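ok so for the tutorial part 2 we go from a plain amino acid sequence to predicted structure tokens. step 1 is just haveing the sequence, like this:
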Amino acid sequence: MPSSEKFSAVFPGFNAPPEAQHCVAIIVRGGEFRSADFVFPISDGGLKLIGGIAGNEFLPPPDGSHGLYSRPLPVPGGATAIDRVSRALGSLGNATARVEAVKPLIIHDLLAFDITLFLRIQVQNPFVGGDCYIGTPEEPVTVPIHRADWDREIPALTREGVPDGVIAITNIHGAASPFKVPAVSGAGPMGVFNTLVNVRAGLPNRGKTTALRIQADAFLAQNPGYGGTK
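step 2 — the prediction. this is what the tokens look like for a chain of 230 residues:
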């Protein structure tokens, strides 16, 4: 996808707060979340971070998203982690997961891609219902991400197709490990399937077998509505 199309896809109708000097958008192009034997792949565009920046402070849009946008993604192996069982169950065996932010991320060093996310993960399946979450606003999955540069996988400044005044950096690799992941809650009526989901995802995980790896593109632009400091 040309860079100009990628840019227009991440800032549609977004208005940063007037105190934000810049607008930032990060699109995850691929990656995976791992807890023990539970592996949750993140597809291209499955996760986006959009907001404003004032100094080093991230300012999310006022829509309750905390600046994180995601879509439900299929969980390999379905609800049981056994493909043949999930196939036998049909649609009842399918499971999806969707990441939500419970508060705005913290930017420690944007150039180093050093950020901390505060998340919960909604797991959906006909058995567990729509209130099944890994992590809560009070006990989120706290993920400290830093840039990880491997051989020939370094970030690249992109100019072709990018509008004037926009900085586009592609091929950013981020990693996080270890980090704690709490037990699930709300799986089925009165949490009757909590144990099943905990066993499926290896929870609670104290961080010994957790990892996150992502590849992302980042876009930075001046905020046209910047009103200056008060």
